[in-house]
Amino acid sequence: MSEQNMGQGMMDVTSDDKLWAALAYVFSPLVPIILMLMEEKKNRPFIRAHNAQALVVGIVMAVVLPFIAAVTLGCGGLLWFVMVFWAVKAYQGQMVNIPLITDFVKNQGWA
């Protein structure tokens, strides 16, 4: 998000928002789908931004990860630790900039 958007919509980030954003990365794509069904959560700007990214990353990882794991003899599963890193950043209240995914989510208007 741009600095202007973060200044306006991200000022009221609660610890609950941070927790849900972190869980969205760790348990993607299950938690992002659940969050989209929860009215009070899906309209929170911080959760919405992280949730959209986590959902797209989770779907991409579910499709691509088996091929990466096969080629690298199972080491592709280590990419899950990158999602844990993004979850920690979300829990700290920071926005995560994921190459290609963040721009895609913003261009679609999902975050």
Describe the secondary structure blueprint for this structure.
Layout lengths: L2 H7 L5 H12 L3 H8 L1 H4 L2 H27 L7 H13 L9 H8 L3
Helix pairs in contact: 2-3, 2-5, 2-6, 3-5
Average pLDDT works out at 87
| Number of structurally distinct domains | 1
Count of helix runs: 7
Uncertain segments of ≥5 residues (pLDDT<50)? 1-8
Radius of gyration: 14 Å
Overall form: globular
Amino- and carboxy-terminal Cα gap: 8 Å
Structure description:
The chain is mainly alpha-helical and 111 residues long. The chain has one domain. The protein has seven helices and no strands. α2 (15-26) crosses α3 (30-37). The longest helix is centred in the middle third of the chain and has 27 residues, at 45-71.
How is this structure best summarized?
The chain has helices spanning 3-9, 15-26, 30-37, 39-42, 45-71, 79-91, 101-108. With 111 residues, the chain is mainly α.
List its salient traits.
111 residues; disordered N terminus; mainly alpha
